[in-house]
Amino acid sequence: MLTPDQARDRAADIVTRAKAAGADAADAVYAADTSLDVAVRLGALEDVGRSESAELGLRVFVGKRSASVSTSDLSADALSALVDRAIAMAREAPEDAWAGLAPAERLMHGAPPMLDLDDLARGGEEASPTALRDAAQAAEDAARAVPGVTNSEGGSASAARSIWALATSHGFAAAYATTGYGLSASVLAGEGGAMVRDYAYSSKRHRSALDDPAEIGTRAGNRAVARVNPGRLASGPMSVVFDPRVGSSLLGHLIGAISGQAITRKTSFLLDALGTQVFSSGVTVLDDPHLPHGLRSRPFDGEGLPVSPMAIIDAGMLEAWLLDSASARQLGLEPTGHAARGVGGAPGVSTSNLHMAAGDLPPETLIEDIANGVLVTELIGMGVNGVTGDYSRGAAGFRIENGVVTGPVAEFTIAGNLKDMFRELTPANDLEFRYGINVPTIRIDGMTVASG
Q: Residue ranges of the Metalloprotease TldD/E N-terminal domain (predicted)?
């Protein structure tokens, strides 16, 4: 794999070639990664996989026309053909008044911030297949040792390293490396057709920061056993409490509704909500791309703009749309540093380390006045309308009776409208940074529950 500097130079070189061949402007992405995955099941090695890939994507502009092409063939002849093909395609493409590179005056200059995203650069050792197998085995062993666990889907461990580079024809070229490590276990409890499954996992930039394998396995086993012999809920309105594992999906719906593309296309249930109270005053949602060794940290966005922490929701108020340069131009606003770029195509929008700030109450206090409610630990299906905000999803979890979490329940649907759900949302104080999007336990009153 190339070094970040070499990757940067490779992206810059193809941009230079595109300009020389007649493009008015261009940008390029170089992405490479290596990964190693090991899976075990029932105490035996089941699979070992290693992959390596490298791709280069080029976007060119001829006037207001543009085209994007990509290749994994990085030979000199293939790259020359790539440039010619991209320019030919751009000349035949329809005009787009909003397309173009990011504003030159907004580009990040100087060295990217140091975010400690590459474990190997800081002296970490490359993970061996044997070490990954042993970790996966220890996680599965611990899960299978939990009384009541009857079968296993296995344990797995992974290690990966990626290089990402971006260069533009108007003065930006930079790259960075990241590592990622994962460890998981998934097991079943119960017998026959009544079997239930659950899992636990840990994902970190630094291998030494992973949760202990035995802890992961025990957590997976206990979760599976707790779900055995689920009952049914009575249908009706009630308070719904979202476990942090599934509550993060609510922020996903928020981000989809405030992305530039949704606003410019007028396909958002929050279309007229900028600067208004969307949540209660106790809710703040933050995006922090500079979180050291964060799972979604990044030194610059997909167009070469600097990134910085920001409050998307501040005391319940919607503070900003999330804009790449094209959607910002269309709306007459400035890009927000949230452009996200794959190897192919134009930039979209993405957050980094998104989280909902912790509230004031522990989860036990948050639910102590719920006489009849449900704790949701699993969501099923995607019944969410981004235009209207209507929300309906299958779920499983645990009954809440007189302020106490009791037995498991399954095969029910929770429904509402995201506008109402956001206003009724109350966060607990148990926020942990375990995932790419993190939330504490969340309570939403007045949802409709229908038993299957």
A: 26-90
* Residue 131, token pair as written in the block: 């070490």
Residue pair 149/185 in contact by the 8 Å Cβ criterion: no
Among residues 415, 398, 410, the alpha carbon closest in space to that of 232 is found at 410
Name the β-bridge partners of 177.
163
Side chain identity at residue 414, one-letter code? I
* Start-end of H helices in 111-243: 129-144, 213-226
Handedness of CA 356, 357, 363, 365 (dihedral sign): negative
SS3 at position 240: strand
Position 111 pLDDT exceeds 90: no
What is d(CA 320, CA 325) in angstroms, rounded to the nearest whole number? 14
Handedness of CA 259, 161, 33, 47 (dihedral sign): negative
pLDDT higher than 90, residue 362: yes
pLDDT of residue 114 exceeding 80, the answer is yes
CA 241 to chain centre: 22
Residue matched to tokens 């020389």: 20
**Degrees (nearest 5) of the Cα angle 400, 401, 405?**
40
Domain boundaries, the chain: 4-225, 231-249+358-451, 252-351
Sheet strands side by side (includes 310-314): 317-318, 310-314, 285-287, 354-356, 437-438
Q: Record the pTM.
A: 0.93
Does domain 4-225 fall into CATH 3.40.50.300? no
Per DSSP, the residues of 407-418 read EEEEEEEEEEEH
Q: What is the pLDDT of residues 11-37, one digit of tens each?
A: 999 999 999 999 999 999 999 999 999
In contact, 438 and 432? CB cutoff 8 Å: yes
Residue in the block written with tokens 């929008």: 349
Task: Classify 403 as helix, strand or coil.
Answer: coil
Q: How sure is the predictor about 134, in pLDDT bands with cuts at 50, 70 and 90?
A: very high
* Token pair listed for 145: 């040792």
Strand 285-287 vs strand 354-356: parallel, antiparallel, or unpaired? antiparallel
For residue 428, give the DSSP letter. B
| Pair type for strands 65-71 and 348-349 | unpaired
Q: Residue 32 corresponds to which tokens in the numbers above?
A: 């490479």
Q: Which residue has the tokens 């409050």?
A: 311
Are residues 140 and 43 in contact, defined by beta-carbon separation less than 8 angstroms?
A: yes
Tokens for 29, please give them: 């992405």
What residues contact residue 226 under an 8 Å CB cut-off, 6+ apart?
A: 198, 398, 408
DSSP designation for 306: B
Distance CA 337, CA 344 (A): 19
Q: In DSSP terms, which residues pair with 202 in a beta bridge? A: 183
pLDDT tens-digit readout, 219-233: 999 999 999 999 999
Task: Measure the CA–CA gap between 194 and 209, rounded to whole angstroms.
Answer: 36
